[in-house]
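Contributing new records

If you add data, match the layout below exactly. Sequence lines come first and carry their own label; structure lines follow with theirs. Keep one chain per record. Anything else will be rejected by the validation script.
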Amino acid sequence: MPRRTPRNALDRMRTPRGFHGFLKGASLCALVAGLLSPLAPATAADTDAPAASAAPAAADDHCGARCSDILPPGQNGNATLAQILLNQAFGTQPAHAEDQLGPYANLATGYTGLTDEKISTFFNDASFGVPEGQVASTLRPAGRDDVTIVRDKRTGVPHITGTTRYGTEFGAGYAAAQDRLWLMDLFRHVGRGQLTPFAGGAPANQGLEQQFWRSAPYTEAELEAQIESAAAKAGERGKLALADVDAYLDGVNAYIDASDKGRYFPGEYVLTGHKDAITNAGTIAHFERTDLIALASVIGSLFGSGGGGEVANALSLLAAQEKYGVAEGTEVWESFRQRNDPEAVLTQQGGSFPYLTKPDDPRGRALPDPGSVEAEPLVHDRTGSAAASHATGASATAADAALSSARRGMSNALVVSGEHTASGHPVAVFGPQTGYFAPQLLMLQEIQGPGISARGASFAGLSMYVELGRGQDYAWSATTSGQDIIDTYAVELCQDDHHYLYRGRCTPMEKIERKNAWKPTVADGTAAGSYTMRVWRTKYGPVQYRATVDGKKVAYTSLRSSYLHEADSIIGFQMLNDPEYLNGPERFRSAVQNINYTFNWFYADSEHTAYYNSGDNPVRADGVDADFPVRAEAAYEWRDWDPAANTARYTPPAAHPQSVDQDYYVSWNNKQARDYTTAPWGNGSVHRGNLLDDRVKKLVAEGGVTRAALVKAMAEAGLADLRAEDVVPDLLKVIESAPVTDPAAKTAVDRLEAWIAAGGLRTETSAGSKKYTHADAVRTLDAWWPLLVKAAFEPGLGTDLYTAFTRNLPVDESPSAAHGPTGAHAGSAFQYGWWSYVDKDIRSVLGEPVKGPLARAYCGGGDLAACRDTLLTTLKEAAGRTPAQVYPGDENCSAGDQWCADSVIHRTLGGIKHGGISWQNRPTYQQVVEFTSHR
């Protein structure tokens, strides 16, 4: 496996997929200064770390050595300046910085011969405690006698054991700072919209702070009020949560003080000018409660806030009505929207859970007048490098990401009930697909103390509890669900552009600003610059667009139910970690009902499995169609909405998709249940969830499912090309409806058929070869897909409508498709694309039955021969394209390097870089669990 990327691989940060490279232009002086600093905490004087050879006794563990996990690249996300410089110069890695990357990567070629006994080759042992002889270190942080942090030799994961609640949480905070202090500091600044003054003015840094601050422009008072409000609503559990937060912060700050005194703090503080390597001048600011809310707002926005995109929906509807007339245009639009497609793969297989179904007679809809929509500018008063074209381009990208409904979905889950397993116990393989970063956004830990007993992953800086993991006799995980909790309101303007009508009164908007300035540092040589971010807030949320509706000036605002409630989920996570509370699937569902973000939650113990869809789903007014902007009038507001607290009436727990002991569950950000509308487009007949569902359904039918069998199903689905498996066979049916006589086309068809017969996988010829089997077929399909979609659909839709629909749903998201929502080298692929549209259209052309068809036939106007001509013409064009044309290269890869174009590359959030690994489409953190007993 490669251990180094090209030197310029760290010179860019793409939001939210990577951070600007460190050491750009590092000087010899910096190198010398860095080498004067300690190599690692262990080499510094540390009175907090007495040696010990034995770990505390392990907590009750009912997994029977059948719980495993993995989280690349490694547990250690902190590095001193010297370690950073050595990594940049020679590729050396700090201890435990990437020791989980190899096993994770090797599954891509090693899964085929997997057995239960070999799972430990690719995953860590996730049993509680540290075996005798495997203790690498034992620490009593700050000299406390009520908590120990034991780290194991294999992975360096912290096992925190406390005799008091305060000590336990203090240890959790201390361990988090040991492993992720720099990352935590970065993201508290991202959440406040203050990344550039802290880390540098690289265009991608600008884009990142703009993307998140646009959605959560909080004042410091609002950040503080949120955690106090969350605690106050939860009674005794709320008081306990607040005490846990304070103890956790005390631990974080104790590590900051110790590392500053011992001079083993992360080296990035020197490279960004916050600390002096020679004199140790400068400070690392202590963490406060408000920092955790800023962190939570970033994570919630990334993974747990479904919705938005209503203005884009309105624009594509207007384009459809312009093309076809109101009635037919609406029918065409609805067929592409696929709100409740009957062929969509479902997580909850039984029952109906109506949510945001299309009203028969929509009320309050506020569609813009044609040509009137303008995005609200966020950035003003640019100076210096902030005015350069690459900076303004980053701002445009950030705005698109913030306003789209095509949000990062990620994550998958495969859960099989004990009725269908070899052991009679449920088996689960699940985890969040949170992207690939160095250091990773998540961190592993085990926490044992009064009222807490869990091991698993937590977001850095929010790790007072395990957020995804296992307890004594149960495990849980989540996938992003994406149901709509964000609505767009059209507020009518009055007096001027910064006053609006609120319940009949002309009301001033509230101006919130961030003034950011930066200068070059060793870490980021971007020239000095500055700008002001300005958001105008209304009671209906921040302004995102301006337009006219029926000739009247309006501002389109964005209101989400989790706004001002970034801390509310803390109670649910507390419950998940409490062994005295969580004793089965019913308590599990009660716990996750307290999580207000939009997630699918999965549970397994030795006897039961369960599923629940969480999120504060606001109850809309009768007749409101939440897919479009609505008028900001009392009649169309959320029911029982209190604008001061941003609370409303929410759909009751019984209305959320859920069940216990279904034969099996799969989720890959697909549709949750029948009649349950999700905000993103693309939940149709072909979805990457089918890659899991088809395989697990087959395993369940055969019976005797094992952990290894379920891992293999996940791993193979993670190498499959969705288009090749579920769409190309029908495309070839059309092409081969008559003999293929053109030699070039025949060669391309034969290659595609051979690849599909072999499974349609994007996999290496052998481990480490960096060459794909069926490479020509893979290249042909990568080139063909965008060509065939455009040729099949644009003539019928017209350019304007086709373009509008591509803004609702990107055409493609292959592993190398840098234009997709997740970008290149991100691992996650095939979430968003036109696969269902092509599938339904081609089956219609073939005369095959289609449930929920498109309103019209598009390929060849519905004529088989004409469609065949379109497909053949585009296939020949695609087959003639060279590897360099299909894979043009980037800062990481040479033009034409197909394997590299697909490869997963950890985007640097600090100074340590890692080499790329072969593409896999799988969770970043992943558990394999099978409990053998129950309390």
